[in-house]
Every structure is written in structure tokens, then in C-alpha cells.
Amino acid sequence: MFLQHCEKVTPLKHDPETGFLEKFPTPAKRDIIKIVLQTLLDPEGPKDILSSNFAIRWVLECFGQAFTLPLAEHELIRSTIELYRKWINQEQLTQTFKDNHYNYLQSLFGHMSLLFQIRKENNKKDLEIQKDLCLKIIEIVAQFAKNYGSELSEEIWNFLLNLYLGVVDHFLGQKQTENGEIFGKMLAPHLLKLLFELWLSSKTKDISMWNRLLFLFSGWKKYQETVVQWTATTYGLSNCVIQMLYGPSEGTDDITILLPPTDEVKFVPSTFILDNKTLVFFFYKTLHLIGNPNTLQNPRIFFFAMNGIWDLVTLFTRIGSNIPQIKKTTTTTKSRKNYPDHPNGNTILNLFGQWLFESVGLNREGFEEGTECAYSTLSEIFMLPQKTGFKKIYTTSFYESIITAFENEEKYGRSIAAILFYTSNIFTSELDGVYILIPFYLHWISEILMKGHLPKNCAIRSELLRRSCLSILNTLICLPKYFTGLEFEKQFTASNILKNFKYKTFNEMQQLIFNLITQGFVNEEDPTNACKFFWTFSIYLFEMKDTPLTFAPELYNCLIDVISDHEQIKNPKWPIWVIECALSVLKSCSLLTEIVMKKNPNIIPNMIKQLLNRIHQIIVDPNNIPMGVNNETIVCKIFEVIEDHIILGKWALENNALMDQLIELIELSISDPQFVKKKKNKQITGQTKKIKNSALQLFSRILCLAGTLPIETKINNISSLVNEKEIMDYFNISQLEMKKRLRYLSLNNDKLILLFEEPNNYCNIDKYNDNDKEGMRDWLSVKNRDEKKTLLLIRDSNGKYCWRLRFRSLPISFVKNEINKENLHDWQGEPRPPIYKAFTPLSGTEENEENIKFNRDQINFDFFTINEQLQYDCLTHSMGLEHRLEEVYRFTEEETKTIDIKVTPPKNKFACNNNQNLEKQKKEKEGLEIEIEKEEGGGKENGKLGGKEQDHSNKSYFNSARFFLTAIGLIKLENEENVEYLDENTALIENLKEFDQNYSRNTHTFGVIYMKKGQNRVQNIDNMYNNQTSSKDFQKFITELGWLINLEKHKGFKGRLDHNKSGKFVPYFADKSNEIIYHVSTMLKFDQNNIEQKKQLLNQNYVTIAWIEDSRRWNPKTIRSNHNSVFIIIRPHYSGLYKIEIQNFSKTTNVEGPLENNSFLSRHILAQLVRATAISLDNSGFFLENNNNDNPKIIRKQKLNQLVNKFKLNLNVKDFYSKTFSNVREK
Questions:
Q1: Spatial contact of 530 and 1153, defined as CB atoms under 8 Å apart
Q2: How far does CA 1007 lie from the centroid of its chain?
Q3: Confidence (pLDDT) at 711
Q4: What is the mean pLDDT of residues 686-690?
């Protein structure tokens, strides 16, 4: 029966002159075979038995019957198989056998195929034995084809192919007995694998053979194994075709067939190599073996067929997404440039579109799983970035299929979920007319996020589907404000969804999006989705910042509720990283503090109060729950959030209730637990060093804010670059004289003060330009220039600040409460000194924020040094008030009544010209005043004390500095423990130079690359580095990232910066926490013959921003170096919006917002959010690389403390006052 079937379906015919032993009784056949086998295998037996063709044919006739013996004789069969293996591989053959080897191969293979015939008496055990024997034969045939395939004639190949076509069809194409069905399923995957391997090895282009395979294959499709084998074979062929079409960076250079493992066996992959013409022929023929999968009648088989198509489609759609290391090849660069980037979506639809659209249109009952797979495949294709648009017929069919599914949940429930999951970026695509689908998507997003209703028979996990819906919602946030009054198209008049969609315009959709965000979060239970909601809050707030922000309180409350939930302490709903994410979002929203405060002044104060309550819950714990790392992290993060909000303006200082609560919490965070318990009657858990540092840092910033002078510079952070060397050069004095004139003091080990006694009437005129020298001489000739002046250089965690003090006598009635604009001294009447540029803020501050644009007033700074952050911290610590924070904050008059400090403003447009009060006061009682000068100049009459002229001259170099220390109480006896002198030696100066390299803010360098259309192709990527021009859109984006600075004048940036490579001008940005230099590819020094230098500079940045004027996919691996870990990719959208992609190659750095992958933004928030995201990613990467989460200011404070401890003198009282009051000149 087996042989008859093979003859029926193939051209193979049985030789009637063979098989004469077939009618012998089984015992006789067995004995004959055994005797012949023993004789041939006997090493001492005759060697010339097979010396003639007759003998060979006779022996083969005997052994042929061995494969028909009952399985009880399996050992005899196994021995025969082993002998055949040797003969097939030309082992132990006589010369006659060798000469006619290929003539006997057909007999050898034909005999072995008899073993596949089912024995009637087989039981389960026999089936296993027969399976093992058959697998041995399959292995022999496959190995022979691999080793000798190239030597075989077409005749032998056709014989083998026809033979196993018959074998496979015997099991899969014919009705079988029960044992036959079982045995067929056991062997089916192995036989199919062998058949396709033989087919690929044969390289046959015989059309009759392919037609026979196609005819028989149609009867095998009812088996799952057939579809699986077809998928694996087509997949391997496709991979090889892809490399042929799209270059060596894609696909594979050989055909690899890998079947998925089963419960019983893990298949070994097999590889083949075909020439290009044969490869394309095989690909086309194999692809169409499956025919139209919609004709399959078994739902499970239909699903496997559609899943196979999905696998093939993803091979094409992912081209360009993964760039492996390109192998070295002799192919020239010129030839490689001919490779296309990736296939057009229309090309893929031409191959598979008919099957897919027919499948989603039929949606046969019971076939929902396969229909879902078809929808997923279509979604994958239409989300593919396109060089040209999709054909209108394809786009229309896709939209109609989506609407049909969304309208009919009962029938398309599984498919609805698949559509939402696989089209999460549909509205950032460039599909024509895609916004017509918005009402339908919003309907299902509302059902899932707000109502928690999943589509019927949904096969996707709820948290994943909700995440996808939220991603879609993120892409819709910018549309209401961008399209405003544009009305929705309502062409589908029969749509029930459109009938219930009450919003006519995009602008009206704004409230719906807000409701989806807030109410959707209330229903959220997944931590990852919760974080995604948080960043959605942030994007929505930024996008709508120009609106009245009536919704803002609810968004803030959603975040605060997560952070301040009291139950989180004992029974947490969210893991710690969710709370950290909520705090990170609040931190990013600090950029909007000024806007939010103007529109609703209660939001930010209420938020801070609730954050303070959260800290109170943690550190004041009646149950004595241990602090733990998690709670410590939360407290520190809250302090950071509060700091970022209150440093923007003085609104916080004007809110007394808020400041009282804030100061109390800071006190609880830094004070000794026993002290708090005794004074406040509160039990605290005890603070960690990290919490104390964070609290002290916050308090320091509050003091900076409270002490800021009213100078309207709008510079974010004034930290002088002046150092000891520049002071010495400026006054043209020797190092020895410099040492006589200075003292170093530390205050509480965290503030270091240099006091320098300036030489009288001295200025190095040669330091000035010729145009300024005459003015300086005039200024020096003004009377009353003989008063003592002291220069203060203060270093602390926030930076370095330089002050000049001038000592005079003024009327005693001129007290603090009377200081106002009317009685300030006139600065207009005397010449103004030209200032040496090393001391001007634009070249003497950390950021040198020159050329400040964006609605900033153009301000000329030419006074000596400035300090926008005069700190109460200096004074309060010096008076030993660190444990009386409330009193320090209020800074009561009682504590300063003996000190009269007059702040003299710079000589500019803010100065006043009114001396009337001064003239009156000259007739009154006279007293002592210390004038803190912001600019050289402002000649005043010598002061008088008690109505008599006083001579304040002293031969000591340290006279006026000592006078200052005495006047403000720094050398009081009660401050002995707080004030320490440092050893003024060379080692200290060198250590200070090193210390000054520690930045007080985070510094960043970001690469910004610009790609014109077509330059994102692998072959053209180097052309990007040659770009010297760019679009106006990109240029505007650069100006919004920062402002332009001249590197020759800009000093003090402590981040990574190479002046020799960066060019003369670079974009720069600075705020109170960050400094950024942007290396823009179009602005760097250009050398067409040496682009490696530009590559090196751009590739040394942890975060790179890429602006790409092309919608096609680009993989950053084409330019990435070991330093590049994150790429923020910006693509201008045809609608005028911008699509953001974030490619993260770091295994440790998480994308922490505010932007996420596939964000969709409008222009007015693009640069701001890209910059904030880059900072967040760079900070995250820095902390991980350095295993340090500390704020730069905290690190600076710790190093300053170490420096002070290293050089402080630890003087006793006698030596302390001796050093203070000794006559330095006499030493």
C-alpha cells in the first residue's frame, strides 16, 4: 500500500524484477538477511563477495526486505541501517560498488523508505521503536544531501524529492488508521523538515517538481506542522533576500531554517546558500505555497498561518531598526550606496495586503484569533515610517477596517484590543487623514481608562492595554491647542460612536483629555502605568501653560495624594520608585512655578505644605518605625522639589505661614533628637546624614534667596571666578606681601572667608585698556580715596563670592530703618572707574551669561564684583544661631541693632540722586558705619565719631579687616567654636585652586546633530558631519535651547569643553541648578578632510539630541560611540508638530521624563522639554556612573569641610586673639 501510494503521487515506478524475497515467510527472510549480514560484517570473511554487479544487486535484494520485518526484529533492522549508512557514504565498498555507486543510491534510499510503512500489529511501544529507526534514516538522508548534494545528478535529486514527497503525502495527505494518525503526527515535523532541506539542497528550478509540491502541499495545510514548516522556511529565505536587497547590515548571508522547539525535541538549525537568482525564485515559490490563508477551514491552522505572515511582515518592517556590525567585505562604498533604506509600506502590502484585508473583512466566527493577528500585522505595516505615502486604496481600507472593528465590539472584541495596542503612535505617523479616527479612538480610550471596560474577549493584559491607550492619549494632548477651532470630519453618518461624540472642534476636546488623564489615574493599579500618568500630567501642564490653568490644582493633587498618603508608611500601595517618579514630575514642573503662581497663587504653596506634612509623617513617627532607605530617599527628594520651587522668585519668603512650617521641618531634620524632644515635645525617628545634608542645603538656598540684593540682573547664579592669583596680579603685589595682607577663616567648617587688606590708593593702571586709563586716573584723583578697603572672598557650597568693604564715619542718626532710596548717596556726581574685565560678572562669574536674549533687558555690568546672593547663612552661623532657625529666619532687630550696614547700589539707572536726608543728618550725632560696596567709586567725606575727627590709620596690613570682624561680632568669645583660622601656606592656595574646580551646579554638555533629508541612510551618514547650513526651524530650536556665548570671553564652565574644537561661539544655557554647553554639528569647526574631529566631539556626550528632517527610520547605532547612551530624536511633522523618539542604549539609565518615547509636542514647549529631558537623563547617567546621588552643592560642602579640617590651626583663645590683633607689619 505504501509503495502503491508513492507510485500514484510521484513518477516513481516499481521494478517488477525485484522483490523476489517478499513472498518468503518472515522467519526465512529474517534468517537469510541475518546470515548475509553476518557474513558481510565478519572481518575475517571473504572480501570479494560484492565484486560483481550481480552480487551487489542480490545482496541489496536481500537487505531490502529487512526494512519490512516486524519491529520485534528492530536490532536486525538497526544493523542493516548502519550498513546502508556506510555504503551511502562510500565506506567499505568494493571497487565495483564504488564505480557504480550513484546507480545503486536509488535502491539504497528506496529500501530505507520502506521503514516508514505502518505495521498493523504496532502498539505504542512499537511506534516509539519505529519512530527512532525512522529518525535515524532521516538523519542519514539529510547528512548525505549536505555532504554530497553538489555532486548529485538531477536524476538522483528528482528521485529523492519524489520519494519523500510520497512519504510525506502518505502521512499528511491520505486518510490513516488510528495508529497511522498517531505515527504521522510523531514524524510530521521531521519529515517536513527533511523534505524542505532536500528541496533547498537540490536548488531545483524544475517547474514540474514545484507544481507537484504545490499540489500536494495544499492537502497538507490541514496540519499545524505544515504551516510551521512553511513559516520557518519562508522566514529563512526572506532574511537572505533582505540582505541581498538592503545590504550586508540587514538580514543574513545564508538561509537559516529554525523550527520552534516542541515538548519532545529541540530542532537544530540548518543553513543553506543559494545564488541570488535561485534565492529569489525559491522565495517567491515558497511564499505562495500557502496559497490564500483565508481558505483554511481550521481556526487554529488559520491562526498559525496569519501568525507566520506576521513574522514575515515584521522582518521587513524592522529593517533599519537594528544595525549589527557590518562585516568586512570587498564590496566598495560606491556599490553599497545603492542599497535602499527599508521597504516601502506599499511594497509589503503588495505582497500580503490582499490576504490581510480579506481576513479582517471576513472575520469569520471562531476565527477571531487569526483575525486579531491580521489586524496586528496591518497595524505594524501602517506604523512603518514612509518615504512616500501609502496608496489611497490601502489607507482607506485600513481606516474602514478600524472603524468597523471599533463599532462592533461583540464581533471584533479581540481585534479592538490589538488595534489599540499596535497603533499607539498612529497620530504621530504621517498617514493622510488620520485625524478622522480621533473620535473612535477617544471612545475606546474612555471606555478603558475611565470606565475600566476592556473589549470583549480581550487577549492583551489589561495593564499593557491601558499603557497603550495612555500613549495614544499623550499624542493627542497638543492637538486641541494647535488646531483650536478646526472641526472634526463626520463622514461616517451611520456611526454610533460619532453620534454620541459631543465635541465638534479640537478645542472642545481639551476637557475630555483632562478628564481621561485624571479619572484614568484614579482607576490605575499598575505601577508602571502610574508613572506614565504622572509624566502625562506634566506634558499636559506644559502644553496648556498659556491657558488659565483652572485644571492645575487637580493635576497637582493627583501627584500629592500619591506622595503624602499616610498609609504608604505602613501599607504601601505603590512601590518606592513610583513615589520617586511623582516627585520627579513635581521637580520638572518647577519650571512653570512663575506661570502657575501668577494664575493661581495658592497651588504651589499648598503643594509644598502637603510635602512638608509628608516629611513630618516620616521623621515624627509615634510608632518609631525605622527610617529605612526608602523613606530617606523620599525625604531627600521632597527637599529637592521644594528647593526647585522656592528659589524661583521671592514668593515663598512673603508667605509667613509656609516659611514657619518649612523652617520647623528643617529644624527637625537637622537637630539632635533629644533637643527636639525637649524643646518641641516630639519624638523623631532620628535623621540620617543624607537627610541632614539635604535639609541644610535647602536652608542654605533659603538664606541665599532671603539675602539676595535687589539687583535686577536676571542672572541665575552669581559665583565669582576671582582667585588669589588674580587678586595678587591686580594689585601688583608679591606673594610675600599678599600673605601679610590676608587671613583665612572658616565658619562652622562649611564656609571659608578670605579677608584681604587692599593697598591704599592703588590700582594697576596698566591692567586697563588705553581708552580706560585716563578715566582711571581721574577716578584715582578724586578726594577721600585714602579710606581703608578690605576684599572678602567667600567660598561655600553655593559658590564663591567677592565683596569690597569701605570704612567710613557717618551720622549716628543714620540708622537701618531710615535707609531707603531717598537717602542713598548720589553716585551720579563722580567719575566712574573702568573695571578690569577679569572682575566683571560677564567674565568673572561661573556662567558668564552674556548675550542674554528671550525678553531679557540688555544690561551692562561693569562694577567690580557682584553677589546676587548675599547670604544670611554667613551671619547666622557666625553668631552661633544654627539651632535657632526660626529666630534666624526672622532675623530680628535685636540681633543686629549694634551693626549698621548700608548697601550702596551700583552706579547705574537704578541709582538715586537725592542727598537731602544726608545733609540733615550731618548736623546730628555721628556714629560708625560699615559700608558694603558693590562698585568702586562713590567718594564720601571722612566719618566723624562724637563730633570729632578720628584718625583710623594703622600701620598693620590687617587693620580694616580686623575692624570688620570686630564690628559684626565674628570674634566674640561665644563664637570661639564657630570661627577658625586657617594656615596661610602654599599648600592651602594649591588646595583652593583644586577646590575651585568643584562646581556648585550640575554641568552638562550635549551633542546636537542635524540631518538633512536622506542623510539618515547608513550609506550617507557621514555627510551629516559636513552640514554647515540648516533649516530655519532647526535654527530657531537652537536659539530656544539656550543663548549664544563667545568662548573666548566665557570663563568658568567646569563641564566637558574643548575650546580648540568647539568653535568660537556655542549655545549655552544656565539656571540656578544647571549649566549646559551644546555642541551643535552645524556650528563646530569645519574641516572637510577631517570629520573625525567633529565626530569625536559629538560622540563624547552621554546624551545626544538629533534633529532629523526625514520621516524614515534611523538607528543611532550608525554613529553611536561607547560614550553615547541616550539619543533624543526630533522629527518635524508635516502638521507643524514634532515627534520625539528616545533611544536608550544604557542598561541602567531609565527614561525619567518629562518626555517619553513617541511624544508629540507643539513648538512652544519643544525646546524646554527636550532640554529638561536631556538634563534628567544626563543626571541619571552621571549618578550611576559615579555611584553617587548627592547634589553638587552637597559634594562641594563636603570637600570644603575636608579642606578646612586639613588646614585649620585649632588655636586656643589666646592664640586666636593674638593672630587677630597682632601687628602684621612688624612680623
A1: no
A2: 15
A3: 43
A4: 73
CA distance 1106 to 1090: 21
- Helix (H/G/I), strand (E/B), else coil: 229: helix
Residue 999 to residue 846: CA distance in whole angstroms: 9
Burial 1114-1147 (b: 16+ CB within 10 A, else e): bbbbbbbeeebbbbbbbbbeebebbbbbbbbebe
Give me the count of residues in the chain. 1227
d(CA 759, CA 768): 18
Beta bridge partners of 932: 805, 903
d(CA 668, CA 610): 16
Residues near 35 by Cβ (< 8 Å), separated by ≥ 6? none
Residue 265 has phi, psi (to 5 degrees) of: -150, 145
In this structure, the strands spanning 1043-1046 and 1103-1108 are unpaired
Question: Of 310, 313, 369, 319, which is closest to residue 342 (Cα–Cα)?
Answer: 319
Helix, strand, coil content of the chain in percent (nearest 5): 55, 10, 40
Identify which of 160, 180, 182 has the alpha carbon closest to the alpha carbon of residue 170.
180
Q: Which amino acid is at 164?
A: Y
DSSP string, 1151-1175: --SS--TTEEE-HHHHHHHHHHHHH
Q: What is the per-residue DSSP string for 930-984?
A: EEEESSS----PPPEETTEE-----S-TTHHHHHHHHHTTTT-GGGTTTEEEB--
Q: For residue 488, how far is the Cα from the chain centroid?
A: 35
DSSP 859-885: ----SS---S---HHHHHHHTT-TT-H
Other beta carbons less than 10 A from residue 120's beta carbon? 7
Q: Which three cell numbers stand for residue 645?
A: 520651587
Q: What is the pLDDT of residues 1001-1025, one digit of tens each?
A: 888 889 899 988 877 666 667 777 7
Grid cell of 999 as nine digits: 562646581
Question: How buried is residue 563: exposed, middle or buried, by Cβ count under 10 Å (0-12/13-18/19+)?
Answer: buried
CA–CA distance, 678 with 655 (Å, rounded to integer): 28
User: In this model, does residue 1061 exceed pLDDT 80?
Assistant: no
Count of Cβ atoms closer than 10 Å to residue 602 Cβ = 10
Hey, is 264 helix, strand or coil? coil
List pLDDT tens digits, range 944-1000: 333 334 343 445 577 777 778 887 777 777 777 788 888 888 888 888 888 887 777
Collapsed DSSP state (helix, strand, coil) of residue 743 = strand
Instruction: Identify residue 917 by its one-letter amino acid code.
Output: N
Using an 8 Å Cβ cutoff, are 985 and 781 in contact? Answer: no
CB atoms within 10 A of CB 163: 21
Residues 6+ apart with CB under 8 A from 234: 283, 286, 287, 308, 312
User: Could you give the CA distance from residue 191 to residue 134 in angstroms, rounded to a whole number?
Assistant: 9
Rg over CA atoms, the chain: 43
For residues 755 and 819, give the distance between their C-alpha atoms in angstroms, rounded to a whole number.
27
The C-alpha cell at 266 is 529541540
Q: Is 19 left (phi over 0), alpha (psi -120 to 50) or beta?
A: left
* Cβ neighbour number for residue 1100 with a 10 Å cutoff: 18
In the numeric block, the cell 582667585 is attached to: 723
pLDDT in tens, 574-612: 888 899 899 999 988 888 888 888 888 899 999 999 999
CA atoms within 13 A on the CB side of 330: 0
Cell triple for residue 328?
568586512
CB 476 within 8 Å of CB 438: yes
Give the residue from 1039, 1032, 1057, 1048 showing the smallest Cα distance to 1109: 1032
Q: For residue 417, give the 3-state DSSP assignment.
A: helix
Which amino acid, one-letter code, is at 767?
A: K
Name the residue with cell 550617507.
1020
CA distance 34 to 936: 119
Please name the residues in contact with 735: beta carbons below 8 A apart, sequence gap of 6 or more.
728
> d(Cα 287, Cα 251) in Å, to the nearest integer?
17
Cis ω before 1154 (30° cut-off from 0):
yes
